[in-house]
Write a structure and sequence with these properties.
- It is a single chain.
- This protein is an alpha+beta fold.
- The protein is 34% helix and 12% strand.
- The protein has 6 helices and 5 strands.
- A hairpin with a 2-residue loop joins strand 3 (53-56) and strand 4.
- It starts with 7 loop residues before the first strand and ends in a 5-residue tail after the last helix.
């Protein structure tokens, strides 16, 4: 029996049948508490910090502001879907190499935001990097190393940021 798209969350290429008790919950709660995808972090629950950033149909979205019901039938990518199996993505590796991972709480949301930025703009300027990361709060790094990681990825992909 085929599952109706109205009752499916496609997360990182895997279809999850939506249970009716999930429909009133926000996507962040369903990802973490119902599906065990712990990478997407719960911090402000107001769309202000970026810790819960995911891509829905390729658009950067705060999962805390999206109802699970509103995300049915879409393609959702979480930080768990950024890596290639056990191998870190170039963004994740650059974050590690640049020393941009401190406590790690904001890191998943930043990885998703940086991936989105570089998918849209292969060679962002420092100003464009600032703008793209303005929705992600980090209290440990001061952003310099995070920005350096973005530049490193752009350069490793053959473009000068």
């Amino acid at each position: 029996m085929e599952i109706n798209d109205n009752y499916v969350l496609r997360i990182n290429g895997v279809e999850h049948e939506v249970h009716t008790d999930w429909l009133g919950e926000n996507l962040l709660y369903v990802l973490r508490e119902k599906l065990g995808l712990w990478g997407t972090k719960n911090a402000c629950e107001q769309g202000e910090c970026g810790a819960c950033s995911v891509l829905i149909d390729g658009k950067l979205t705060c999962a805390c502001l999206e109802l699970a019901a509103g995300a049915t039938g879409t393609h959702i990518q979480t930080v768990e879907g950024i890596a290639k199996g056990d191998q870190l993505s170039d963004v994740q590796q650059a974050m590690v190499d640049a020393g941009a991972v401190q406590c790690g709480f904001c890191t998943p949301g930043l990885v998703v935001a940086i991936t989105d930025l570089l998918d849209r703009n292969a060679a962002p300027s420092r100003l464009e990097i600032h703008e793209a990361l303005s929705g992600n709060l980090c209290r440990c790094t001061g952003y310099g190393r995070i920005e350096d990681a973005v530049v490193k990825v752009a350069e490793s992909r053959g473009v000068k940021a």
